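For consistency, the fold was encoded as tokens, which produced the following:
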Amino acid sequence: MQIQAVRSGDKLILSSLWREAIKPYFLQACGLLRGVTMLFSDPATRLRLDLIRLAGEADANTIMSNLAGSAADLESLGPLVGLAQVARGDMSRDAYEVTRLTRLIRQFALRAGGLAGLGDDIFSNHH
């Protein structure tokens, strides 16, 4: 009956389905997620406040921004990190261009995989 209601788009039945069958579990999941998040964020928050008190806000922000080290670099920051490495002389311009080209090819392939229904699995040999 509920599947029929979803297919028909009956707003009253869909609203009832949300309130009675989905929303309670959704709220429970949100509460669990918040609890786990707080478990991990509280120590970092305390550390940040201590660093601000000891070193000032600017230095605390600098320290906290690299707390996890290079392993936690955001992929989206890759081009900027690469340019900074080139500017410092830590990476050659040619190496940077190869890195960027490789990333662009991978992004294109993933997008093409998504359009073809292969998703992120485009690089596996299971096809």
Q: What stands out?
A: The CA atoms of residues 38 and 45 lie 10 Å apart. The mean pLDDT is 77.
